[in-house]
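Reminder to self: C-alpha coordinates first, then the designed residues, so the page reads top to bottom the way the pipeline ran.
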Protein backbone atom coordinates (compact mmCIF):
# COMPACT_ATOMS: atom_id res chain seq x y z
CA UNK A 1 0.00 0.00 0.00
CA UNK A 2 1.19 3.53 -0.81
CA UNK A 3 0.00 6.62 1.05
CA UNK A 4 0.87 10.09 -0.25
CA UNK A 5 0.38 12.89 2.26
CA UNK A 6 0.10 16.47 1.03
CA UNK A 7 0.99 19.06 3.68
CA UNK A 8 2.82 22.29 4.40
CA UNK A 9 4.27 20.80 7.59
CA UNK A 10 5.86 17.43 6.67
CA UNK A 11 8.06 17.58 9.76
CA UNK A 12 4.98 17.01 11.93
CA UNK A 13 4.91 13.37 10.85
CA UNK A 14 8.40 12.54 12.11
CA UNK A 15 7.19 11.44 15.55
CA UNK A 16 4.20 9.25 14.60
CA UNK A 17 5.93 7.60 11.63
CA UNK A 18 9.38 7.05 13.12
CA UNK A 19 8.25 4.68 15.85
CA UNK A 20 6.23 1.57 16.65
CA UNK A 21 3.88 -0.15 14.20
CA UNK A 22 4.09 2.31 11.31
CA UNK A 23 7.89 2.30 11.36
CA UNK A 24 7.97 -1.51 11.34
CA UNK A 25 5.43 -1.63 8.51
CA UNK A 26 7.64 0.62 6.41
CA UNK A 27 10.74 -1.41 7.26
CA UNK A 28 8.92 -4.57 6.15
CA UNK A 29 7.96 -2.69 2.95
CA UNK A 30 4.32 -3.54 3.58
CA UNK A 31 3.54 0.15 3.16
CA UNK A 32 5.10 3.24 1.64
CA UNK A 33 4.43 6.73 2.98
CA UNK A 34 5.50 9.74 0.92
CA UNK A 35 5.29 13.31 2.18
CA UNK A 36 4.80 16.18 -0.25
CA UNK A 37 5.20 19.84 0.70
CA UNK A 38 2.83 22.19 -1.12
CA UNK A 39 5.48 24.89 -1.06
CA UNK A 40 7.53 22.83 -3.52
CA UNK A 41 4.74 23.45 -6.05
CA UNK A 42 4.28 27.17 -5.43
CA UNK A 43 5.10 29.18 -8.56
CA UNK A 44 6.07 32.54 -7.04
CA UNK A 45 9.47 33.40 -5.59
CA UNK A 46 8.12 33.53 -2.03
CA UNK A 47 6.65 29.99 -2.22
CA UNK A 48 3.25 31.36 -1.23
CA UNK A 49 0.53 28.78 -0.65
CA UNK A 50 -2.22 30.85 0.98
CA UNK A 51 -4.12 34.06 0.27
CA UNK A 52 -7.06 36.13 1.51
CA UNK A 53 -10.55 34.79 0.75
CA UNK A 54 -12.67 36.47 -1.88
CA UNK A 55 -15.50 38.51 -0.30
CA UNK A 56 -13.41 39.06 2.81
CA UNK A 57 -13.63 37.40 6.18
CA UNK A 58 -11.19 36.19 8.79
CA UNK A 59 -8.38 33.77 8.07
CA UNK A 60 -6.40 32.69 5.04
CA UNK A 61 -7.28 30.09 2.39
CA UNK A 62 -4.91 27.58 0.84
CA UNK A 63 -4.49 28.40 -2.84
CA UNK A 64 -5.66 26.15 -5.65
CA UNK A 65 -2.53 26.10 -7.81
CA UNK A 66 0.09 24.44 -5.53
CA UNK A 67 -2.41 21.77 -4.48
CA UNK A 68 -3.61 21.09 -8.02
CA UNK A 69 -0.07 20.86 -9.39
CA UNK A 70 0.92 18.40 -6.68
CA UNK A 71 -2.10 16.16 -7.19
CA UNK A 72 -1.76 16.33 -10.99
CA UNK A 73 1.83 15.13 -10.79
CA UNK A 74 0.94 12.21 -8.52
CA UNK A 75 -2.03 11.19 -10.67
CA UNK A 76 0.19 11.20 -13.75
CA UNK A 77 2.46 8.68 -12.03
CA UNK A 78 -0.17 6.21 -10.80
CA UNK A 79 -3.88 5.62 -10.26
CA UNK A 80 -5.38 6.36 -6.85
CA UNK A 81 -8.22 4.52 -5.15
CA UNK A 82 -9.15 7.61 -3.13
CA UNK A 83 -8.09 11.23 -2.71
CA UNK A 84 -9.08 12.16 0.82
CA UNK A 85 -9.35 15.62 2.33
CA UNK A 86 -9.10 15.78 6.13
CA UNK A 87 -11.79 18.26 7.10
CA UNK A 88 -13.86 18.90 10.25
CA UNK A 89 -17.02 18.86 8.13
CA UNK A 90 -16.23 15.55 6.42
CA UNK A 91 -17.79 12.15 7.04
CA UNK A 92 -16.95 10.92 10.53
CA UNK A 93 -14.08 8.43 10.32
CA UNK A 94 -14.74 5.06 11.94
CA UNK A 95 -13.43 1.51 12.04
CA UNK A 96 -15.52 0.44 9.05
CA UNK A 97 -13.81 3.09 6.95
CA UNK A 98 -10.41 1.97 8.24
CA UNK A 99 -11.15 -1.62 7.26
CA UNK A 100 -12.28 -0.47 3.82
CA UNK A 101 -9.27 1.76 3.16
CA UNK A 102 -6.83 -0.92 4.34
CA UNK A 103 -7.66 -2.91 1.19
CA UNK A 104 -6.64 -0.07 -1.14
CA UNK A 105 -3.39 0.14 -3.09
CA UNK A 106 -2.85 3.90 -3.38
CA UNK A 107 -4.45 6.79 -1.51
CA UNK A 108 -3.77 10.51 -1.11
CA UNK A 109 -4.37 12.33 2.17
CA UNK A 110 -4.69 16.09 1.81
CA UNK A 111 -4.02 18.10 4.97
CA UNK A 112 -5.77 21.43 5.03
CA UNK A 113 -4.67 24.41 7.09
CA UNK A 114 -5.66 27.97 7.94
CA UNK A 115 -9.33 28.57 7.03
CA UNK A 116 -9.41 25.66 4.61
CA UNK A 117 -8.63 25.02 0.95
CA UNK A 118 -9.97 26.59 -2.23
CA UNK A 119 -13.36 24.98 -2.87
CA UNK A 120 -12.39 24.12 -6.46
CA UNK A 121 -10.00 21.49 -5.13
CA UNK A 122 -12.83 19.90 -3.17
CA UNK A 123 -15.13 19.98 -6.18
CA UNK A 124 -12.69 18.68 -8.81
CA UNK A 125 -10.05 16.58 -7.09
CA UNK A 126 -11.28 15.21 -3.78
CA UNK A 127 -13.14 11.89 -3.83
CA UNK A 128 -13.82 11.66 -0.08
CA UNK A 129 -13.82 14.05 2.87
CA UNK A 130 -13.39 12.64 6.36
CA UNK A 131 -13.22 14.02 9.89
CA UNK A 132 -11.69 12.35 12.95
CA UNK A 133 -14.15 14.00 15.32
CA UNK A 134 -16.61 16.80 15.95
CA UNK A 135 -13.96 19.36 16.78
CA UNK A 136 -11.51 21.60 14.91
CA UNK A 137 -7.74 21.06 14.74
CA UNK A 138 -5.16 23.61 13.63
CA UNK A 139 -4.51 21.53 10.53
CA UNK A 140 -5.08 18.14 8.96
CA UNK A 141 -1.69 16.68 9.88
CA UNK A 142 -2.67 15.15 13.21
CA UNK A 143 -5.87 13.79 11.68
CA UNK A 144 -3.89 12.26 8.79
CA UNK A 145 -1.54 10.56 11.26
CA UNK A 146 -4.54 9.10 13.11
CA UNK A 147 -6.07 7.82 9.86
CA UNK A 148 -2.75 6.28 8.78
CA UNK A 149 -2.25 4.46 12.07
CA UNK A 150 -5.82 3.14 12.05
CA UNK A 151 -5.55 1.86 8.47
CA UNK A 152 -2.01 0.51 8.50
CA UNK A 153 -2.40 -1.75 11.53
CA UNK A 154 -5.19 -3.60 9.69
CA UNK A 155 -3.04 -4.49 6.67
CA UNK A 156 -1.99 -8.18 6.68
CA UNK A 157 1.64 -8.57 7.68
CA UNK A 158 1.82 -5.38 9.76
CA UNK A 159 0.98 -6.76 13.21
CA UNK A 160 3.11 -9.63 14.51
CA UNK A 161 -0.06 -11.39 15.72
CA UNK A 162 -2.38 -11.58 12.71
CA UNK A 163 -5.42 -12.11 14.94
CA UNK A 164 -4.77 -9.05 17.10
CA UNK A 165 -6.64 -6.57 14.90
CA UNK A 166 -9.63 -8.87 14.75
CA UNK A 167 -10.21 -8.44 18.48
CA UNK A 168 -9.98 -4.64 18.44
CA UNK A 169 -12.77 -2.43 19.64
CA UNK A 170 -15.38 -1.70 16.95
CA UNK A 171 -14.84 -4.96 15.11
CA UNK A 172 -18.32 -6.51 14.90
CA UNK A 173 -19.69 -3.21 16.26
CA UNK A 174 -18.60 -4.02 19.80
CA UNK A 175 -16.18 -2.42 22.23
CA UNK A 176 -13.46 -4.78 23.39
CA UNK A 177 -14.00 -6.67 26.68
CA UNK A 178 -11.74 -6.08 29.71
CA UNK A 179 -8.21 -7.49 29.56
CA UNK A 180 -5.90 -8.55 32.41
CA UNK A 181 -2.36 -9.75 32.93
CA UNK A 182 -0.08 -10.82 35.80
CA UNK A 183 -0.16 -10.72 38.75
CA UNK A 184 -3.41 -12.52 39.43
CA UNK A 185 -3.90 -10.77 42.78
CA UNK A 186 -2.71 -7.19 43.28
CA UNK A 187 -3.63 -5.65 46.63
CA UNK A 188 -6.77 -7.75 46.73
CA UNK A 189 -7.80 -6.83 43.17
CA UNK A 190 -8.12 -10.19 41.41
CA UNK A 191 -8.41 -11.29 37.80
CA UNK A 192 -11.80 -12.94 37.07
CA UNK A 193 -11.40 -16.67 37.68
CA UNK A 194 -13.10 -17.54 34.38
CA UNK A 195 -10.04 -16.25 32.50
CA UNK A 196 -7.83 -18.78 34.28
CA UNK A 197 -10.21 -21.70 33.82
CA UNK A 198 -8.83 -22.94 30.50
CA UNK A 199 -12.39 -23.42 29.25
CA UNK A 200 -12.24 -21.63 25.88
CA UNK A 201 -15.97 -21.88 25.27
CA UNK A 202 -16.88 -20.26 28.58
CA UNK A 203 -14.09 -17.69 28.28
CA UNK A 204 -15.32 -16.60 24.83
CA UNK A 205 -18.87 -16.43 26.16
CA UNK A 206 -17.69 -14.21 29.03
CA UNK A 207 -15.78 -11.93 26.65
CA UNK A 208 -18.77 -11.54 24.38
CA UNK A 209 -21.09 -10.75 27.28
CA UNK A 210 -18.66 -8.15 28.65
CA UNK A 211 -18.18 -6.60 25.21
CA UNK A 212 -21.95 -6.25 24.75
CA UNK A 213 -22.34 -4.89 28.28
CA UNK A 214 -19.66 -2.21 27.73
CA UNK A 215 -21.03 -1.29 24.34
CA UNK A 216 -24.54 -0.80 25.71
CA UNK A 217 -23.19 1.57 28.36
CA UNK A 218 -20.53 3.49 26.41
CA UNK A 219 -21.49 3.33 22.72
CA UNK A 220 -25.09 2.09 22.44
CA UNK A 221 -25.38 3.47 18.91
CA UNK A 222 -22.98 0.81 17.66
CA UNK A 223 -25.52 -1.91 18.40
CA UNK A 224 -27.97 -0.20 16.03
CA UNK A 225 -25.54 -0.17 13.10
CA UNK A 226 -25.95 -2.64 10.27
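Designed residues (226 positions):
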Amino acid sequence: MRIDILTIFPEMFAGPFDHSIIKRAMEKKVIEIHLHNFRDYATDKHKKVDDYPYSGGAGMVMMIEPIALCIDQLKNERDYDEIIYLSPDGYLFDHKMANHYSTYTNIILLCGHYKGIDERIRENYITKEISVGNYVLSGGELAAAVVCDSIIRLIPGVLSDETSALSDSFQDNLISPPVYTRPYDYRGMKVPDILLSGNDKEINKWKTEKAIERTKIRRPGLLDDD
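The chain has two domains: 2-152, 169-224.
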